Amino acid sequence: MSADGILRMIEENGIEWVDFRFVDLNGKAHHISLPAVEVGRDTFVNGVAFDGSSIPGFKGVEDSDMVMMPDTETVYADPFSAHPTLIVMCDIYTPDGERYDRDPRGIAQKAEEFLQQTGIGTVAYFAPEPEFFIFDDVRYESGMNKSYYEVDSEEAFWNSSRKEEGGNLGFKIRHKGGYVPVAPADTQQDLRSEMCRIMMESGLRIERHHHEVATAGQAEINFRFDTLTASADNLMKYKYIVHNTARQYGKVATFMPKPLFGDNGSGMHVHQSIFDGDTPLFYRQGGYANLSDTALYYIGGILHHANALLALTNPSTNSFKRLVPGYEAPVNLVFSKGNRSAAIRIPVAAVTPKGCRIEFRTPDSTSNPYLAFAAMLLAGLDGIQNRIDPRELGYGPMDRNIYDLSDAEKRDIRSVPSTLDEALDALQADYEFLLQGGVFTREFIENYIDLKRAEAKSVQIRIHPHEYSLYFDC
């Protein structure tokens, strides 16, 4: 849509406000709202000013003026505002008109440009599958003298004996027993359907929704694949709708990877493929799982750089509470067809040549999607350019349930890092592939590592409640 088209939409639909948004390094959206009567053609030429020093990891106070430049292709009506409002995603520029090299959306766009420069293909498609929990109550505190969290859900198995007004109605979902049950066990069918309705009205193409494996309201809604930057935009829209629809129902949604101890966590499996025009480059009939050599090299790049990638695809201390064996967590750095115990799964059911793709199962939704998708693409392209064959490096294929292998059989299978610090160490040692095409810069990576080190340390130095259980009576 052009700027003139947006201005016509404002006039024809009685729009009162235009909400301009950008995304910080952690993947959180920020916004500034302008009265619609103050938005004109010059707004789309000159942009909207904001203070970069108030955004962690952006600018210092001595050089803080920054500009949001609206992307007119991203506009949609805010489904939650009481006053008619349009939402527009923006790119970040410096006052002299240069793209800001720490703008995550700009990094995603540069990754797409680099793909075309390589001559390998013209477009990369991404399809994230974010999982999330819907709770009825959440409470937490981290202070000098106390630290705790508590969440609750009407369908949680720990409430099977709770006395409620009118009696306990039962049908609680057992631990690891939540995969696609029908009502009354699944209490959130209507809520997920409402989320999907709003997503579709806001421009997302929804494929399906269902309850996920864990107790206490774990959910998944799948939306249609798109190009790299567009998929990241869609994920930001998706999370905004999930959070706010849950709140309208008096509930709270979280994409935190591991909010519950002893049950499955929430991941964000990411499907990926590359096309040259209309020609899919990952398909070759008769190959392993009908994969082409290009696809195998792409897999090799991701698995070869996986430890470093995780600093961008799983960038929280909580991420590594999910990445432990025994909870369907993809901790094994191998690939396999149809095998959910591998870090990379090749979907094989009802797959056409154009649907041939790889699924990297390790990422989660604490990642910034613009940075995570860009990093995955660069790792895969590095694999293609350097012909990194995963079969020759011991990355599979592994067509067995890896969780059932003996320790001796698993000895040669690489696993993901066990902490955020280990992933940051890996990124510090292996980031040259991210510099290709000027997509990431050394300065960006150094700044990112410093921010995440501070985050990890803030958790490391705090007393954990479980330490009282272990050591108070020493």
TrEMBL record:
Pfam families: Gln-synt_C, Gln-synt_N
UniProt-listed InterPro entries: Gln_synt_N, Gln_synt_N_sf, Gln_synth/guanido_kin_cat_dom, Gln_synth_cat_dom, Gln_synth_gly_rich_site, Gln_synth_I, Gln_synth_N_conserv_site
Region forming the signal peptide: none
Keywords attached to this entry: ATP-binding, Cytoplasm, Ligase, Nucleotide-binding
Domain of life: Bacteria
UniProt EC number: 6.3.1.2
Gene symbol of the encoding locus: glnA
Primary enzyme class: ligase
Protein's UniProt keywords contain RNA-binding: no
Catalytic reaction annotation: L-glutamate + NH4(+) + ATP = L-glutamine + ADP + phosphate + H(+)
Annotated protein name in UniProt: Glutamine synthetase
Domain GS beta-grasp, first and last residues per copy: 13-97
Species for this entry: Paenibacillus residui
Compartment(s) of residence: Cytoplasm
Keyword Ligase: yes
